[in-house]
Design brief:
The chain is an alpha+beta fold. It has 11 helices and 10 strands.
């Protein structure tokens, strides 16, 4: 899938670029770039689209995003207000093994790490048990200068390769290649869903975003994402529901259901179990046991 081509900050004196951000919200458009990306969410919550899959993100999460993998960090609606207390913080590492680092990765000694990167072009999320260690290595790289940056960079890659068996791909489906125009179109559909998931979304409305009839849109969406429109919408809603269930201001399951876009508790419970494999109360109980709350 070709989507908005995004240009990362240019740094002529660095082969591995690190970027700290503190902003009201994340860049809100589905995009891709040639560079591999490792992003640590320091502050902020929302939904993360990788390829054709959607996930929740929370403080402490770290995502590895493959070269040219379409992705989107979508902050929650509360971040698009005038509240100065709401903001995001992140640290991202960008690198391209086919450009400035090409000669290093072509060395025989780099074969193992080069194979690691090739195997994980669909990205992965750092397992919870390893997040602190990876974050520390990212901080060290960000603070380092000159050759030390490369030393910390390769130490980081070696660590990721060492936990290779614990890594699961963010997206298992490789979308068909389409034109940039088509990529922008599916990005607009994603954005519309993210903006309106909490209310009723008639098929006619979302089809109109892509200038299609409802029947044509359903075929198009399935071809581009591997999901039905309703299936993808339900995944977005359940991801939002999971965040609401574990939020400090959690009130009740029924409140979560209705504010996540469901019009009945019965339907919410059914869809929640289909997506997560457990009921909302089971999910909440497991979360509280794991977090000690």
């Amino acid at each position: 899938m070709n989507v908005l081509q995004f240009t990362i900050p240019v740094s002529h004196d660095k082969s591995v670029i690190s970027q700290e951000e503190q902003l009201p919200y994340f860049y809100p458009y589905l995009h891709r770039h040639l560079e591999i990306q490792l992003t640590w969410i320091i502050e902020g919550v929302g939904s993360f689209v990788a390829g054709t899959n959607v996930y929740s993100f929370n403080p402490g999460d770290i995502f590895f995003i493959g070269a040219n993998q379409p992705h989107l960090f979508k902050s929650g609606p509360e971040y698009f207000t005038a509240d100065p207390a709401k903001h995001i913080r992140s640290l991202t590492i960008f690198f391209d093994p086919t450009e400035k680092l090409k000669f290093l990765f072509s060395a025989p000694e780099m074969k193992v790490l080069k194979n690691f990167l090739d195997r994980h072009n669909n990205g992965f999320k750092i397992p919870d048990a390893h997040k602190d260690h990876v974050a520390d290595k990212m901080l060290a790289l960000n603070s380092a200068r000159n050759a030390d940056r490369l030393i910390y960079f390769f130490e980081l890659l070696q660590y990721l390769n060492a936990i290779n068996k614990e890594l699961e791909p963010l997206s298992t489906r490789v979308p068909d290649k389409v034109s940039d125009t088509e990529g922008i179109r599916i990005g607009q559909v994603y954005d519309y869903i993210m903006q309106h998931y909490h209310s009723d979304i008639p098929l006619e409305n979302v089809a109109a975003v892509s200038y299609m009839t409802p029947q044509a849109f359903c075929r198009y969406f399935k071809k581009q994402t591997g999901h039905t429109f309703v299936g993808f919408l339900n995944e977005v809603r359940i991801n939002e529901a999971c965040k609401k269930l574990t939020a400090p201001d959690f009130e009740s399951v029924s409140t979560v259901a209705y504010t996540s876009g469901f019009n009945s508790i019965t339907n919410f419970n059914r869809v929640f179990k289909t997506v997560t494999g457990k009921s909302p109360l089971e999910y909440l109980k497991e979360y509280r046991a794991a977090s000690g709350n």
